[in-house]
Request: fold
Amino acid sequence: MKAPPGPGGLPVVGNALSLVRDPREFYDEMSAYGDVVSYRLPRMKFCTVLHPELIERVLMVDYDRYAKWGLEDFGGEFAPEGLLLTDGDQWRRQRTTIQNAFTVEQIRSYGDTMARCAAEMVSRWDDGEEIALNRAFSKLTLDVLTRSLFDLRLSEEADVVTEFAETLNDRGSIDGISTFLPMWVPTPENRRYKRVLSDFRAFIDRLIDERRGQADEYDDLLSLLLTAEDDNGNTMSETELRDQMVTFLFAGHETTSLALTYTFLELTKNRSVRERLDAEHEAVLGGGTPELGDLNDLAYTEQVIRESLRLYPPAFIMFRKATEDVELGGYWIPKGTRITLPQFYVHTDERWYDAPERFDPSRWTEEFEDTLPDYAYFPFGGGPRHCIGMRFAMLELKTILPTVAQSIEFELLSDPDPELDMATTLRPAEDIRMRVSK
Ligand code: HEM
Reply:
């Protein structure tokens, strides 16, 4: 069997320069080679997969032939023992335990906190005030997460978490060549990353220490992590505990915050969508706070969120590594090859979406969803390792969007088509600035 085709690269750096210069253009060039395309970055062999059926093979059908890998390989030392990056038995054990904090019942109980946090944020804004929407939502989703999963109010200490999230994003940015250098190279980014990660870990250790001894009094993720035992009666190690907290504090707030930011950005640009959304909120909620019973009736709100996650998938690319030689789409992929599954590219492929660049929530009809191949849309990943926070995030988005939209109109002050930075998440390169009108 043959190796996948792909663009030739330079010695040593491979295709890194083209990727850094313009990731989207680089993927456009790669797609000319087919649906399984090979390329090279310094020290690593890559292969990108662009067809939904083959993405399903990697994430679902043959998932145990591929391992997770992420920031570690770029030297990020993020949270190697946290749920996002563990593998095999350790991952299975962790996932089974942590799943208990994400049952339908548990998640429903977080709905009130979500609405309350959003209402508090809105009440703090003054009419006519100018805000950086991305920063406001980042604080809000952090507040929601820490109150519901860790029963903590971090308002005064939020900076240590947001600084960590920003630094992690900088460290993982595709358009910084230092992303591809190992951690021991003393670049300014590496030095800053190490310092901020160490502050952040110290902060988490303190939170864990404070809760120890009183874990039984709380019914949240932190207590669950402290008390859960595996089949042999062992609790999680110190490192596992800390890495779970690092993982959830990052994965659980930055992604949802970006989804809210891009949704409101598109609403300011698409008047008719905003009007239809307002009409649905008026009909279903009549100015009130969304409650669980209302959520099924917010069908258009859900379409708006879906469309936003299609055009701006906060987790815009997924990474795997072949743990054995595999066949994929008729090609031979040797063990150790890094596989990328790029949502940002597949979600705008003309084979599956008409006018893919247009923000059009009404495309999400039942008929359309029936014909759309599985894995042509996968903002939350897929297979056994799909996002454990998916239901939490959808509840949060469906609660916060109407709560904010019913009291606020935004006037966009910054670029309507902001440059997007492909960092650890798909973040705006500049703040999204809005004027609040109450
Ligand atoms: C719009 C919001 C969100 C998006 C787009 C998103 C996206 C994703 C994606 C694509 C994955 C799969 C990564 C992979 O397999 O390589 C994932 C996994 C994960 N997400 Fe989310 N996520 C969101 C919200 C959340 C929230 C709210 C939480 C926590 C409360 C969370 C926690 C996690 C964790 C812990 C994993 C790893 C699961 C595992 O490997 O077993 N995410 N997420």
Observations:
- The first strand starts at residue 36 and ends at 41.
- Residues 83-84, 95, 247-248, 251-252, 255-256, 259, 314-315, 318, 379-381, 385, 387-389, 392-393 surround protoporphyrin IX containing FE (CB under 6 Å).
